[in-house]
Structures are given as C-alpha cells and as structure tokens.
Amino acid sequence: MGPVAVRSPVGGRGRRLALPGRSRRPATPLNCPSTAPSRTEMKITHVETYPVRIPLKPARRMVTALGQHIVSDYVLVRVVADNGLEGIGEATVMPRWSGETVWGAKAMIDHLLGPAVLGLDPTDIPAVDRRLELATRYNWFARAAVEMACWDLAGKGAGKPVYELLGGPARDRTIRCRFSMGAYDPARARARALELIAEGFTTIKVKVGGDPDADVERVRVVREAIGPEPDIVIDANCGWTVPTAIAAVQRMKPLRISLVEQPTPDGDFSGIAQLRREVGLPVMADDMCFDRVDAEELVRHNGCDVISVYPGKNGGIARSKEIVEFAGRHGVACSIGSNLEWDVGTAAMAHLVVGCANMRVVTWPGDMLGPEYHETRLAITPIEIAGPLVTLSDRPGLGIDLDWPLVREHRLTL
Predict the structure, then answer these.
(1) Distance, CA of 273 to CA of 224 (rounded, Å)
(2) Cis amide bond preceding 405, omega within 30
(3) 238 in Cβ contact with 206 (< 8 Å)
(4) What's the mean per-residue pLDDT of the chain?
(5) Does 1 score more than 50 pLDDT?
(6) Which end of the chain, N or C, is more open, meaning fewer C-beta atoms within 10 Å of its C-beta?
(7) Closest Cα partner for 322 from 92, 112, 175, 129?
(8) What is the pLDDT of residues 122-137, one digit of tens each?
(9) Which of 134, 159, 184 is the last residue of a domain?
(10) How would DSSP label each residue in 137-148?
C-alpha cells in the first residue's frame, strides 16, 4: 500500500470528527441525474502518473500562515480508454495544507486508485467515485486527479465541454478573479498592491493569520495604497485562535474589509460562527470545508456566508458540485478557491464555475490564476489569463492539451 496522508492539525484535517449518528458519506448520493454526464461508453485500460516540479515566479511566491511556497511539486495523471481517447488530471498537493505529498499521491494513484478504476467506463462518474472511495479515505487531491481525468474523457467522448455535462453554462466563460497576495512586509505589500490595481484587479486578497499587529499594518498599507473603492479580502488560513481572530478583524473593520476568509482554526464550527456573529462581516469557509459533511456542519452552525470549493480539495468535480448545490439549497453562496493549480487543475475549476449556478463569483470573486504564478506552463492549449480575467475554452472535455515532451523535461525523480 502507498503512503496514506494523515490529517494533522498543521494540515488542517486532524481534529474533526463526525457527530454521533452522522455518516461521513454524503446525504445525497453522487449518482443523481444532475451529476452523471451524458454517456459514451468506453473502458479504462491504464493510468499513468507524472510527478513534475515547477518553480513559482519570484514576484508571486506565496507567504501564508502555513509558511512559504516557492516551488510546486504536483502529479499529472493520464487516463487512457480502450477507444484511444485519453483524459488528464492534476493532483495539486501541498503537504502543509492538505497533508498530501507528491510521493504519496504518485504511490496512491499507481498502486491503489489507478488499479481501482481499470475496466470502468470513465463516463460513469458515480461508479468511478465509488471505486476511489473504497480504495482510500481522504487523499482528496490524488482522488480528484483521477476523477477529473475521467470527466475529461467523458467530455471528449461526448464532444462537449465539461461545463455542459454539469448542466451549464450558468454564466459567461470569461470570469473575473481576485488576486491572492502573500503575507508580505509593508513596503512590498504596498508596491504589489499598486501593481495589481494597474493590472486591472478590483479585489485583492491579503494573507494574514500571523502576528495581529503585523497583519493589521499590512492590510492598512494596502488600503492606503489602493484607495477606498477596490475590495480587500483577508485570509488567515486557520492561523488565528478564535479570540485573536475576533480582535484582529474588529481592528481591521475601519479598513473596509469586504470578506473574512477562514479566520479561525479547522474543525471549530462553533468558533467561526461566533466570529461571524460578533464582527458583523461576511465570512468565507475554506480550509475547514473538504467534503459534504463539513458543508453540513457550517450550515448547521450558521458559520459562513460563502464556501470556497474546488475539485482538488473536494476529491473531484462531482463532489464539488454536490457541495455547491447543497449550499445553494440552504442560502449559502459558493466561490472558487485555489491551491495554485496548473492549467489542468485550473480548467477543472473553471468548468465548475461555468457549470454551476451557485458559484457566485461575481459577488464573491475567486482564485483561478495559479498557472500565471509559475515560471513554466505545460499546456499546448493553456487556459486564457489576462490580468484578473480567466477565459475558459469551449473545446471538448477540460479543453487542455499537455506538451508531453515539456512535461517529461520537468519530471521530478522521486
């Protein structure tokens, strides 16, 4: 058996337990008609993995409450069917965030997840998800890589973009994003904020979650630099305690914060609800919402106004869609989050946004700029990114073709 990712407190997945009488399985099965794509039958013959390393551009290296991210070690997945079609997926793993690693994800896919789906029809997404669920618990990003490759195959087989298989388009294929700025020192934060406004961004997310005094000063200089109109979102990545978060956010309220993202620790649904009541600002849950049960707890506690979803974190496109639809039924908006994906993962996110009505990205802009953070793009047909605007293609499947010689050139030896 390959290494299994452990839900540690640092990774944000270690303290949460299902309440008595509550199943970890979704209340609504994944084989509902709105989830299953149109079927063009084929069989999976083999699954291949490619661990790859791409550094981030120096100007876009990320600093958060979890540390610094300067290089991305991810796993690309190629799923081949008996009719010659192939689908691609991406495991955007970060050890300090989800607990998954490039070594573990490759081993998990090579030895468990890949063999589990051999012989299945990749267009039967519910069957694929059941096999992945039986093969391993958690390991969301590794599972998502295999699942999104099956969606890619399903779209190619049907001659349709994935967003149409999801029931869309629910909105235009060009989507305005916010920019996620690292927890920089004040001088760098001020300079970067001015650059972003010049590039056309109207929402800037500022990473916080460390020393409250330094965090407040960072947000203050950003507001001073950009003026009163652009929106500022803060994101603590679970870095504060509940009392610290409440006090810090109260200090930032005069700086016109439009959204408070993941200000409190993972697993503390009562704590995030307490902050939401006391600070009187919209709250987004991200690091504490990996699956449908997490979403149920957030709704039950009135813990947030918005849930950040994305296929890698949620274990696949179908599971993201399930959370989005559940949240919508309970009056909670969803937006798109990011783990600094490359083009394949970003395309999967964009199809979710275009295909699901409750992805309220106009009101609550999300993050889909990961490819532009990296020094190299591996796609022959990359997703279009121009400043804050991301445009999804209408090509079949995910719409991304990889430059396999370039992938091999950047292949990571494990």
Answers:
(1) 30
(2) no
(3) no
(4) 91
(5) no
(6) N
(7) 129
(8) 999 999 999 999 999 9
(9) 159
(10) SS-HHHHHHHHH
Query: Which of 52, 37, 92 minimizes the C-alpha distance to 338?
Result: 92
Nearest Cα residue to 266 out of 7, 94, 16: 16
Please indicate, yes or no, if residue 10 is contained in any of the structural domains.
no
Model confidence at 246, pLDDT cuts 50, 70, 90, reads very high
How confident is the model over 29-42, as pLDDT tens digits? 454 434 455 556 89
Distance of alpha carbon 8 from alpha carbon 94, whole angstroms: 13
**Same domain, yes or no: 216 and 346:** yes
Please count the structural domains in the chain. 2
On whether the CB atoms of residues 63 and 182 are closer than 8 A, the answer is yes
Whole-angstrom distance, CA of residue 372 vs CA of residue 199: 13
- At position 129, the amino acid (one-letter code) is D
Last residue of a domain, one of 97, 128, 159: 159
359: domain range?
Answer: 164-403
Round to whole Å and give the CA distance between 54 and 71: 6
Contact 116, 131 (CB under 8 A): yes
